[in-house]
Design a protein that fits this description.
heterodimer; A: 518 residues; Rossmann fold; B: 333 residues; mainly alpha; two-stranded antiparallel ribbon; 72% helix
Chain lengths: 518, 333
């Protein structure tokens, strides 16, 4: 087998073999309306960290899920040490040595660290009872192996996000693994925690194990990755090896397939009048002393790592979390927003991060989903005018370019892009003047993302003010007029988005503080 | 594959089930498809069907009500007491029972929303409590001697049709229009379908659930009037077991226990299905012990099918995605 990638340290990793320990061979996979993988080839070498990058919805997570046995490819195969292998269930994949750490942790919050590490293979005494001592010992060893000092008797929910992730890693490596997959491991971490994770990766990069590192934070790759695979629309568009030393912008361009400035179509429609102003608001959910204002037609971006309080600020403004202090002013009038009902009455809308659990009615029709936030527009004296509803709904679908078949099916069947457009259509139907978008492009393909940007432009043109939350920094920088940097529930600074570079912004968000790991 | 729109209606499986059970009846006994038996079946179906409207509403709102049987017992005792001891006229007594039915439903609603008690447990509690209150009337003995006018409420006919058939059709029509064409009906689907999304869309899930329970109490009140008129007496055990039939009817009718999915018309078909099963078993002289086992098996089977159906739609998306989704994938390109 020819090893095409030039390896950074094929020599200095003892046992680093030339046959890739794991590889994907022309993998293809399709979902209705969801992005497919098309003939993906990728070699993972033992002792190497292989980075997998791509935009939201490029197929990264599908590829990860094929390796971890969640999805089956329609064609192509997975090779382990050069031999084809079937991974038909997550369990099978685990026993064959694939450990996956997803962005959403699979830890059980109410159990201890030791119990979480032992879950799945609980040690038993000769009587068949749970062997607590052996369990604790196993956990201690697993934590020692990766050189961290976390008390195995602590309950997982009392740990910080970074500590929980370390427990997750300990759990993964406590079983023999020849492939460790980390799916977006740094999204919730501060910069010192990220450094700590990268040191940990060095320890885990043993001669018998390959690491697949999925990320969209390009600036961190040069410190960790031996090779980089770039996916776009389900296809491998570039593979870099370490010696090429690709710059962040080279990788970014490969990811979106054109110069960044062309991808993010941004129109600025900022007007003079203030649409929304919040003054010194606090909540019980880690939001303190937030003051900001958005003008009509303006996009204000909220930048911050996961857990920084961005979503909590949005929820507070929308009345979803109770505000304990401060005031909210809409169109220069102080208003009481203590529930989504009152927020909507004041013309504020909210597209939550999690479309499935918080946004959509999956088993109901797209039109149902579109009109639900303002049924008064299509009813009189409590009675719905369904013809009118249909006409207005279809009209909006045309405007938003929702797929034609959408009106005849339930939302569950639609692609992520169409689903997201329905949520945007819901608030346009409700006639809001302030719209909060929490990660509006997560999990949708490139085409749909551009649609979302187009809709944002249309909304701002008509005077709607937008509060945009996004983990995707190029997107946030390009689409926002101004950016507020959030950390630990507070605003660090607000400035014009052209005043920031991506690296500066990342550094401010992550900051230099220690974070949770003790 | 092209499918006639009508075949995609959620009540199709229930209609097929009803048809198959009818077929079974026709095959197993010549006494099934007779005028007399059909009339009996209609009368039998009506009570279950009307109570099942309530079960359908609560299940659609994402909750469950285990108490309608006890509500019927209690309301039946109140109705009989009112008619015999207080000398209420029939319309007044019926009105009072409907109002009190709504009150009992509202009690469930308050427990589930304001009290934060999961409905399974809250209505399990009221199942026991309402049955207990029913026993407080007339020292726990049935109340006999209702006037024949009261029986006419059930056994009367209008234009040759049994009155219960007309009540049933009328109430289902109202329930259908309510769920499909009113704001509150729409909100019941929304809250049952996804309570968090409903709340973030500016709905008030607690209020919607409270009202669903209250309306379910109204349905139980209607059922209580019919069953009391049928037997010409009030009894504290009249409704026992009715909750099982009503919930089974709703689930057999395709109303998903996960909430927000199904049509109320399905509950009518479901009630017809299980009443027919009972009727056929009776005609074939199957002992009641076995009937109870079979009814139990039916609800378990129906819920299991509902559970698998949810999973199948996911599987379909994964496994056969490409073939089925062909028309729908070109979203943005």
């Amino acid at each position: 087998m020819i090893d095409s990638a030039v390896l950074r340290n094929g020599e200095d990793v003892p046992g680093g073999s030339r046959v890739p320990i794991w590889s994907a061979e022309s993998l293809s996979k399709a979902f209705p309306g969801v992005l497919a993988l098309k003939g993906v080839n990728m070699d993972l070498h033992a002792g190497h960290v292989h980075a997998l990058v791509g935009e939201n919805g490029c197929g990264k997570s599908t590829l990860v899920k094929i390796f971890s046995g969640v999805h089956q490819p329609e064609s192509g195969q997975i090779l382990h040490e050069g031999r084809p292998i079937r991974l038909s269930t997550p369990k099978e994949s685990r026993t064959l040595g694939v450990s996956t750490i997803y962005q959403e942790f699979s830890l059980i919050g109410t159990l201890s660290v030791a119990e979480n590490i032992a879950v799945g293979s609980m040690p038993r005494t000769s009587l068949g009872l749970l062997d607590r001592r052996a369990m604790k010992e196993k956990a201690r060893k697993a934590l020692e192996l990766i050189d961290v000092d976390i008390d195995p008797t602590r309950t997982v929910e009392t740990l910080s996000v970074a500590e929980q992730q370390i427990v997750e890693i300990a759990k993964a490596v406590s079983s023999e693994s020849s492939l460790l997959i980390l799916d977006e491991p740094t999204t919730a971490l501060s910069s010192s925690e990220v450094k700590r994770l990268h040191r940990l990766l060095e320890r885990l990069r043993t001669p018998d194990r390959a690491i697949l590192y999925v990320s969209h934070r390009l600036e961190e790759l040069e410190h960790v990755a031996d090779e980089i695979t770039v996916l776009r629309n389900g296809e491998v568009v570039r593979q870099f090896d370490h010696d090429e030393r690709p710059s962040v912008s080279t990788i970014a361009q490969a990811m979106i397939g054109r110069p960044i400035s062309q991808f993010y179509q941004k129109e600025s429609h900022v007007r003079q009048e203030t649409a929304l102003e919040v003054r010194h608001i606090d909540t019980a959910q880690n939001v303190s002393d937030i003051s900001l204002s958005i003008r009509r037609g303006e996009v204000l971006g909220l930048a911050g790592v996961i857990g920084s309080g961005r979503t909590e600020i949005a929820r507070a403004i929308f009345g979803a979390d109770p505000v304990t202090a401060g005031s909210v002013r809409v169109r220069d009038v102080e208003v009481r927003v203590n529930s989504p009902v009152s927020a909507i009455r004041q013309g504020i809308g909210f597209v939550p991060e999690n479309r499935k659990t918080e946004g959509l009615f999956f088993n109901l029709s797209p039109i149902f989903n579109t009109t639900i936030a303002r049924l008064s527009r299509i009813s009189a004296a409590g009675w719905l005018k369904r013809r009118r509803e249909n006409i207005m709904g279809l009209d909006l679908f045309g405007q938003f370019q929702v797929a034609a078949h959408a009106s005849r099916t339930v939302v569950r069947q639609l692609s992520g892009g169409n689903q997201q457009k329905l949520l945007l259509a819901r608030w346009v139907f409700a006639g809001v003047e302030v719209l909060i978008l929490d990660e509006p492009t997560q999990g949708i393909d490139i085409g749909a993302r551009q649609e979302v940007y187009r809709i944002i432009n249309e909304l701002t043109r008509s005077g709607v003010a937008i509060l945009l939350i996004s983990s995707d920094m190029p997107e946030l920088l390009a689409i926002s007029d101004r950016i507020a940097v959030i950390k630990r529930g507070r605003i660090l600074m607000i400035s014009q988005s052209r005043d920031f570079t991506q690296v500066q912004l990342a550094e401010m968000m992550a900051g230099s503080n220690g974070g949770g790991v003790s | 594959m092209k499918v006639l729109p009508i075949l995609r209606s959620p009540v199709v499986p229930a209609a097929v089930a009803t048809f198959l059970v009818f077929l079974l009846g026709v095959i197993t006994t010549p006494r099934f498809l007779t005028g007399q038996n059909m009339e009996n079946l209609t009368l039998q179906t009506s009570i279950v069907a009307i109570v099942a409207i309530g079960s359908g509403l609560t299940i659609l709102s994402g909750e469950i009500d285990l108490s309608p049987g006890s509500q019927v017992s209690l309301l039946s005792m109140i109705l009989a007491t009112g008619l015999t001891s207080f000398g209420w006229s029939i319309p007044v007594a019926c009105f009072v029972v409907l109002v009190l039915g709504a009150v009992l439903g509202a009690v469930n609603g308050v427990l589930v929303t304001w009290g934060r008690v999961p409905s399974f447990v809250g209505t399990l509690g009221t199942l026991s409590a309402f049955a207990g209150i029913a026993l407080l009337f007339n020292h726990g003995s049935p109340i006999f001697g209702l006037s024949s006018e009261m029986q006419a409420v059930f056994y009367g006919k209008f234009l040759g049709m049994p009155l219960p058939l007309l009540y049933t059709v009328g109430l289902f029509l109202v329930a259908y229009l309510f769920l499909s064409y009113t704001v509150l009906g729409r909100e019941i689907y929304a809250v049952g379908g996804n309570s968090v999304a409903a709340s973030l869309s500016g709905l008030r899930p607690h209020r919607v659930r409270f009202l669903a329970f209250t309306l379910a109490g109204l349905a139980a009140g209607s059922g209580a009037i019919l069953i009391t008129a049928r037997l010409g007496s009030g009894s504290p055990a009249l409704g026992s077991g009715l909750e099982l039939s009503a919930i089974t009817a709703a689930v057999v009718g395709g109303i998903s226990l996960s909430g927000g999915r199904g049509s109320i018309i399905g509950a009518l078909l479901g009630a017809a299905t299980i009443s027919s099963v009972q009727n056929i078993l009776n005609l074939n002289a199957v002992p009641t012990t076995w009937q109870s086992i079979i009814l139990g098996a039916i609800i378990i089977l129906a819920v299991s099918i509902d559970g698998w159906r949810n999973e199948f739609s996911l599987l379909a998306r994964w496994r056969w995605g490409t073939k089925r989704g062909g028309a729908g994938t070109g979203v943005t390109q």
